[in-house]
Request: fold
Amino acid sequence: MKQKFEKKLGIDFRKYMIIGACDATNACKAIMAEENIGLLLPCNVIVYESEGGAVVGVIRPTVAMQMIENLDLHRIAKDIERRLKNVIDSLAPTGATRPGSRSVPPPKAKASSGPPHATGG
Reply:
């Protein structure tokens, strides 16, 4: 987002990434349970610079799916939320900043300066 804001708007913005985290198996299950759920996919993960480190945040799928009355979809959302929570909890925590997010310390200097990445299961 930093580069896009700078190029299109002339704004010098901190590092901010939006990562679409989509598991094909769960996306298929969700769409089969509720055809219009594609409007809410993929599950976005945000990573941005903050004082002293980075913040990683996700929307809780169980909360996002509350607006849809579909028990099968709620079960899928609960499973996905459990997995996202495991990923967030596995980060080196320095204290949660708000629900669904976790502050992590800045990475140690490395030889290469490529873009940040996320791994998930």
Summary: The chain has one domain: 2-104. Strands lie at 16-21, 43-50, 53-58, 101-104. Residues 71-90 form the longest helix (20 residues). The first strand starts at residue 16 and ends at 21.
